[in-house]
Design a protein that fits this description.
The chain is about 25% helix and about 30% strand. By secondary structure, it is of the alpha+beta class. The chain has 2 domains: about 90 residues, Gcn5-related N-acetyltransferase (GNAT) (Aminopeptidase, 3-Layer(aba) Sandwich); about 110 residues, Aminopeptidase (3-Layer(aba) Sandwich). α3 packs across α5. The longest helix is centred in the last third of the chain and has 15 residues. It starts with 10 loop residues before the first strand and ends with a strand.
């Protein structure tokens, strides 16, 4: 077995150790390779002061995979057998058909209600770019990108309160349209601002000719509002180290 180094796919910060990738070739998944690999990795973490190991995203900067695909029951079994417990099963990939999409009545109502609270929505036009970047740096630094100025402003929808940016959703198109981030300032959550942002993005996608869209690695507890089809779910696991 190759020696793990500080630059390999294992990460640690103070007492938290992260394993964002855990893969075993199907030919060996039913043997003891997984057990040996985990023991080797845990020894590596313990030698560096690790007290808790996490399988899945370490943080937003170290995020190779979203967790273990829930369909890989043998991998989940190996982790469970070695003392790992489920810590998060909320992440999922969602696909939604947009051909028959219409803005739900409840979203229209939420939009109007928020307007009465002086909360408005609009595209990230150049005049708002500096405020948007400042908002990201302060509240969602892992999504901040200095190249935002080069992005089509209509691929970002912002929520405003008294001129300040308080929320955003960002989407793009590669092979298909997808939403890659949505965030609302902590003190403005639970007002359906995030939901309105997402549905405004769906409306814009459809207006651009999209027949379907995808949201990858999303918290299902929030994005279930789009009523899309869940095509994949991810499991994150953790274990206290001794």
């Amino acid at each position: 077995m190759s020696r793990l180094s500080d630059s390999s796919l294992a990460f640690y910060r103070e007492t938290l150790a992260g394993l964002p990738v855990f893969f075993i070739h199907p030919k060996y998944v039913r043997g003891d390779v997984g057990d040996i690999l985990l023991r080797y990795i845990i020894d590596f973490f313990l030698a560096r002061g690790g007290r808790y190991a996490k399988v899945g995203p370490f943080d937003y900067k170290v995020r190779f995979l979203n967790g273990i695909d829930s369909r890989y029951t043998e991998i989940l079994g190996i982790l469970s057998k070695n003392g790992f417990e489920v810590t998060d099963a909320d992440q999922a990939d969602i696909v939604k058909d947009l051909e028959s999409f219409e803005m739900p009545i409840w979203v229209k109502g939420a939009h109007q209600s928020l307007h009465r609270e002086n909360i408005t929505f609009g595209f990230c036009e150049p005049i708002f770019l500096q405020k948007y970047q400042k908002f990201l740096m302060e509240h969602f630094p892992y999504w901040y990108d200095p190249k935002e100025a080069q992005v089509d402003p209509r691929l970002r929808i912002l929520a405003f309160h008294s001129g300040d940016v308080i929320g955003f959703t960002a989407y793009a198109k590669e092979e298909y349209w997808y939403i890659w981030a949505t965030g609302v300032r902590t003190d403005f959550r639970w007002k359906k601002i995030g939901s309105v942002l997402v549905f405004l993005a769906l409306e814009e996608m459809k207006g651009r000719g999209a027949s379907k869209m995808c949201i990858s690695d999303c918290p299902l507890s929030f994005y279930k509002v789009v009523e899309g089809k869940v095509v994949r779910r991810y499991i994150c696991m953790g274990k206290a180290l001794k």
